[in-house]
Write a structure and sequence with these properties.
Helix content: under 10%
Order of helices and strands: EEEEEEEEEEE
Strand content: over 45%
Structural class: mainly beta
Number of strands: 11
Distance between the termini: 37 Å
Number of helices: 0
Radius of gyration: 13 Å
Length: 121
């Protein structure tokens, strides 16, 4: 079993940056892919980025490529999402998730955190 706890959300002005963190616990962490997702009110959940093997391999959604960077610190069992050039449309609840496939398709992720709110004004 894997438990995930996100942190780092908050309010920021357009053009600003935030770094989200996702701390993991569980014995199978090292074998999992880690992904970041978001969901805005009234919208479907959107996959943003995923990584595996300490950040050696990554995938990004087209909508955030070049602005968001996913990274992973295996020693800390933590995954990060560095977000830059934030826009009001980035406002959403951001979730990290753990799964077995390197993809931004949420269907492949059985383990989810509780989410952290990001508001861009």
């Amino acid at each position: 079993h894997v438990q995930l706890v996100e942190s780092g959300g908050g309010s920021v002005q357009a053009g600003g940056s935030l770094r989200l963190s996702c701390a993991s616990s569980g014995s199978i962490y090292g074998n999992l892919c880690m992904g970041w997702f978001r969901q805005a009110p009234g919208k479907e959940r959107e996959g943003l980025a995923a990584t595996v093997s300490g950040g050696v391999s990554t995938v990004y959604a087209v909508s955030v490529k070049g602005r968001f960077t996913i990274s992973q610190d295996n020693a800390k069992k933590t995954v990060y999402l560095q977000m830059t050039s934030l826009k009001p449309e980035d406002t959403a609840t951001y979730y990290c998730a753990a799964g077995l496939r390197l993809t931004v398709d949420a269907d492949y992720y059985p383990y989810w955190g509780q989410g952290t709110q990001v508001t861009v004004s």
